[in-house]
């Protein structure tokens, strides 16, 4: 199996400048390749340039611009071109599926924050000084950079990436390793119901509160964004020091909320994986749930629109984004795979409206957000617990059907 590791790097001032220049030059390569694709399709032959054709031009580009493109790893530049090829592949795939995707966009220097190396030892070297007590990673054109390795890397390192987050630099590794020993079985199964009032409720009646990290930081974020809005929009190199500090403050606050949300997701998923052998959850279409409502034209007055509940829906969308269900489910699946647990997604329709006692399904069974009262048999319970119970039953049905 493949596992990723992320470590903080501690570059010197000169190394940090070199890393910034590496991102800048790879961003320039990405934008230049994108411009070539646009020009070829619109003005030349109405055909797209392939990754192979652009990769074949790298040798000439490096020879023409030795000071910038020629100082970096050839394989990392190929990875940048492959990144653009994947963007076009996703664009055409969505078109064939009938969706309305956005065309691949040019990247600003501040929006291009990652450089990939396809193979350890080709333009980079992880733990390049194994006899040194300090772990270092070496990058072509940068040198040996200190790494704060807070845990051991198990397995053979396959790929290496450099990532910038604000003023911090990270190295991201992927390592191929044997499947770990599964956790001992507990004999417990659970269904989980994700929500807003409670982040998670399981079929045993346990409620995990929603931390609402984004809402708690909303006041500070609003003040920081208002301070930033007073500065005119400029390129990064043209900003004043006060402007740059305002940008960094907003980014720091967003980064803190993101780390808090990840920490909560990791801890919650780990607790579930340790306690249960089988976990069922709703197969939520989060992107569809957080879409803005369609406008309602007023048939009596052309050019005007009727109220469509957009204000209330925007508040709900913020709560869904703040909860981070998608990130949590991704982490849950990864931890379950490592622990030898089973996770199954089930259809979420009517899970909170179906009585677990008699099976009656009706909208009236859930008179309020928290209360469930079956109009057929009179069964009463917490609505989220009822939903989690029905999710577990549906998950067990799918589990036994798959085994059969």
Task: Walk me through what this model shows.
The chain contains eleven helices and 16 strands. With 404 residues, it is α+β, with helices and mostly antiparallel strands. It has two domains: 2-176, no CATH class; 189-214 and 255-403, no CATH class. The strands form four sheets. A seven-stranded antiparallel sheet has the order 2-6-7-1-5-4-3. A five-stranded mixed sheet has the order 10-9-8-11-14. The model has no long low-confidence stretch (mean pLDDT 91).
The number of strands is 16
Helix content: 40-55%
In whole angstroms, how far apart are the ends?
27 Å
Within the largest sheet, what's the order of strands? 2-6-7-1-5-4-3
Low-confidence stretches: none
Number of domains: 2
Overall mean confidence score, pLDDT: 91
- Given helix and strand content, the structural type is alpha+beta
**Strand residue content:** 15-25%
Oligomer: single chain
Overall spatial form: globular
Give me the number of helical elements: 11
The biggest sheet, with number of strands, parallel, antiparallel or mixed sense and barrel status, is: 7 strands, antiparallel
Radius of gyration from the alpha-carbon trace, in angstroms: 26 Å
SSE arrangement, N to C: EHHHHEEEEEEEEEHHHEHEEHHEEEH
């Amino acid at each position: 199996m493949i596992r990723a590791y992320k470590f903080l790097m501690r570059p010197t001032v000169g190394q940090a400048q070199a890393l910034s220049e590496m991102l800048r030059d790879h961003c320039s390569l990405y934008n230049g390749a994108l411009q070539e694709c646009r020009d070829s399709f619109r003005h030349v032959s109405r055909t797209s340039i392939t990754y192979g054709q652009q990769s074949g031009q790298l040798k000439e580009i490096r020879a023409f611009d030795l000071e910038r493109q020629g100082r970096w790893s050839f394989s990392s530049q190929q990875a940048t071109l492959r990144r653009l090829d994947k963007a076009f592949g996703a664009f055409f795939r969505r078109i064939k599926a009938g969706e309305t995707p956005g065309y691949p966009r040019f990247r600003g220097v501040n929006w291009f924050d990652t450089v990939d190396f396809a193979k350890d030892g080709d333009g980079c070297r992880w733990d390049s000084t194994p006899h040194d007590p300090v772990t270092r990673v070496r990058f072509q054109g940068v040198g040996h950079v200190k790494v704060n390795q807070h845990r051991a890397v198990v397995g053979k390192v396959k790929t290496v990436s450099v990532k910038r987050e604000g003023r911090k630099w990270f190295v991201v590794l992927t390592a191929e390793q044997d499947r770990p020993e599964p956790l001992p079985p507990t004999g417990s199964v659970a269904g989980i119901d994700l929500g807003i009032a409670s982040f998670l409720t399981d079929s045993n009646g346990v409620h995990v509160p929603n931390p609402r990290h984004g809402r708690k930081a909303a006041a500070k974020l609003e003040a920081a964004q208002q301070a930033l809005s007073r500065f005119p929009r400029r390129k990064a190199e043209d900003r004043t020091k006060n402007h740059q500090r305002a940008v960094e403050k907003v980014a720091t606050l967003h980064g803190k909320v993101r780390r808090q949300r990840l920490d909560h997701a990791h801890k919650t998923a780990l607790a579930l994986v340790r306690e249960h052998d089988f976990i069922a959850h709703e197969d939520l279409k989060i992107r569809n749930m957080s879409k803005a409502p369609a406008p309602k034209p007023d048939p009596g007055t052309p050019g005007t629109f009727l109220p469509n509940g957009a204000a209330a829906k925007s508040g709900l969308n913020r709560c869904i984004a703040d909860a981070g269900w998608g990130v949590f489910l991704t982490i849950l699946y990864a931890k379950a795979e490592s622990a030898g647990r089973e996770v199954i997604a089930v259809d979420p329709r009517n899970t909170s409206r179906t009585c677990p006692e008699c099976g009656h399904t009706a909208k009236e069974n859930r008179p309020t957000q928290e209360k469930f009262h079956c109009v057929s048999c009179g069964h009463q319970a917490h609505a989220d617990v009822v939903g989690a119970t029905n999710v577990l039953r549906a998950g067990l049905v799918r589990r036994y059907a798959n085994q059969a």
